């Protein structure tokens, strides 16, 4: 997500975290624009709580999306534009990736006082 | 973790993902050295599966640690050196952070053929 001002959450459990980690292939085009479009689309999914991304230059990228329940994840995973972007990701952008769908059992946060 | 060559996992569910997201404060000292020591220590915890980190310059950092079960998480969270580092993190390194402890229900991966 652009311009993060702090970590997302924590939220009241239970909720879901979808961890997406990836290594980019070289020379892909349209990755940034599609990413921005996906940010817009996921924000409209009922039960979407928030997301955050980080990519160390030259290294692995991690995006975590937070969802209220399985229905919200299903809605996002079945979105046609999202599915098209996933296909394009495999064909053009990613050298490799992993996805972990996980139910958050507890969470906590800290903000400097 | 240093020199990632690809995403960690996926592993055979169930397992746990501990998502740690943070924004750094300005001017902290000893952050990198302590991080390297924590990488060493966690690798020795029985049931630790792997971890990965990314930090966008000037933005949010995300570290995800993967553990076989709750016992492994407890062992890591009760490690005295880790606890001391956490205290120091609040006092010196982090502007804010959030932790999400989540049980992975399904996972999958892709590697370019």
Q: Indicate the mean pLDDT of chain A.
A: 93
The helix/strand class of chain A is alpha+beta
Determine the number of helices of chain A (DSSP H or I, runs of at least 4 residues). 3
Number of DSSP strand runs of chain A: 4
Described by its quaternary structure, the protein is homodimer
Integer count of domains of chain A: 1
Which consecutive residue ranges of chain A, at least 5 long each, have pLDDT under 50?
none
Amino-to-carboxy terminus distance of chain A: 25 Å
Query: How are helices and strands ordered from N to C of chain A?
Result: EHEEHHE
Q: In which range does the helix fraction of chain A lie?
A: 25-40%
Percent of sequence in beta strands of chain A: 35-45%
Short descriptors:
3 helices, 113 residues, 31% helix, globular, homodimer, Alpha-Beta Plaits
Explained architecture:
Chains A, B: Keywords: Monooxygenase, Oxidoreductase. Chains A, B: It comes from Streptomyces alboniger. Chains A, B: GO terms for molecular function: monooxygenase activity. The structure is a homodimer of 113-residue chains. With 113 residues, chain A is an alpha+beta fold. The first copy, chain A, has a single domain (15-104), classed as Alpha-Beta Plaits (2-Layer Sandwich), CATH 3.30.70. Helix content of chain A is 31%, strand content 38%. Chain A is built from 3 helices and 4 strands. The first copy, chain A, has helices at 31-43, 70-77, 80-93; strands spanning 15-24, 48-55, 61-67, 94-111. Chain A has a 4-stranded antiparallel β-sheet with strand order 2-3-1-4. In chain A, helix 1 runs antiparallel to helix 3 (80-93). The longest helix of chain A has 14 residues, at 80-93. Chain A is globular, with a radius of gyration of 14 Å. The mean pLDDT of chain A is 93. At the A-B interface, strand 1, strand 2, strand 3 and strand 4 of A face strand 1, strand 2, strand 3 and strand 4 of B.
């Amino acid at each position: 997500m652009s311009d993060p001002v702090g970590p997302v959450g924590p939220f009241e459990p239970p909720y879901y975290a979808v961890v997406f980690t990836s290594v980019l292939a070289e020379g892909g085009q349209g990755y940034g624009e599609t990413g921005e479009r996906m940010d817009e689309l996921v924000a409209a999914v009922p039960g979407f709580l928030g997301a955050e991304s980080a990519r160390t230059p030259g290294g692995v990228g991690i995006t975590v999306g937070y969802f209220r329940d399985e229905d919200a994840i299903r809605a996002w995973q079945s979105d046609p534009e999202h599915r098209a972007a996933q296909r394009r990701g495999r064909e053009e952008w990613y050298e490799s990736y992993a996805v972990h769908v996980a139910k958050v059992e507890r969470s906590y946060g800290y903000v400097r006082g």
